[in-house]
Design a protein that fits this description.
about 425 residues, alpha/beta, 7-stranded mixed sheet, 3-stranded mixed sheet, 16 helices, 15 strands, about 50% helix, globular
Amino acid sequence: MPLRSAVRLLTTPLGGFLRPLVANVQRGHAAVAHARSVLEHELDTIRGAGTWKGERVITSKQGPHIYVDGSRGDMLNFCANNYLGLSSHPEVVQAGIEALQKYGAGLSSVRFICGTQDIHKDLEQKLALFHEREDCILYASCFDANAGLFEVLLGPDDAVLSDELNHASIIDGIRLCRAKRMRYKHMNLEDLEEKLKEAQSSRLRLVVTDGVFSMDGDVAPLREICTLAEQYGAMVFIDECHATGFLGPRGRGTDELLGVMDRVHIVNSTLGKALGGAAGGYTVGPKPLIDLLRQRSRPYLFSNSLPPPVVSCAAKAVELLLASNEIAQSMAAKTMRFRNAMTKAGFTISGNAHPICPVMLGDARLASLMADDMLKLGVYVIGFSFPVVPKGKARIRVQISAAHTDADIDRTVEAFIQTGRKHGVIS
């Protein structure tokens, strides 16, 4: 056979085989290009609406004073969840260093395989003691705690009654369960009672609410909620991420503040805010519930254990609070100093007597521009807009810390006054 014929014989089938592959690759490229176009259009829409969320780069440890990349000098930080200033407390930091040296960086495992250390059990005991509940289970975050609870506790014969402004993690957690879902109007007791009446045929009824609503700084009416729950045979759950450590005489949270610690049945909260500020969340409640969560809660079963330094930092934070309520009690006066001064200046501050102090502005672009101008004046705050808050309710959410001085607060108020006048928010 001539060489030319042999080559043709060998390459013709190969070409026939490659053509579909080439066509498939081209279609794949076209699909990616189309997806990119769709995504870019969505991003342009966000930018055009003035709701783009940029990320500023902090070059120092978390605290009331921080350094920000591209800015000169230290900045006053008024938007962290570092309520008690424990994120960089020397005893908390030292506890993390010692845990890193003794226990290593991480467990490389989930809890039930080989990821449980004595420090995990110790922290769970401390948190149960702190909240005066029977038992506790740790998660990688409170988002995971909320994602893991409802699916295990509630089935198709049950009902969950949720405040319409509950945190996104609560909403997502409830979506995972098969219970009848009922939303009641924000902190509206009459609507809650109507929903409880509708749910009377259910096996279990669970009322679900944030203790403190993080975007508005308002406190749930827990006394009245507990009374209704008892009247209609329901349990009560609260998310305490923005209350644990500093609300109440001993910093135990919203249920202590309102005198219903023995009437709230399940509490979820975080280690990532007041309790050291690193990461992690937990559920405290009846021991049978905690035992069942260890058996069936998917975020617990399929997530790596909390790293030892995180566990020990949080444990030290809880120890400090168990030993003294002085830090927690320092919050009230500082909170009211800011709220009163801002109200007097003509700003509208949402919520009441909580360190979350939302400066209500309405317009998303205005909130972003004012936050940028505040940064130029040495104050780090962030504009909040849709979808973090409802459309038309943009704000700058200021958060007071026990580590802030009166001078820090006064300087921030003056920066708000200067910026507010520039943008016509106040006269």
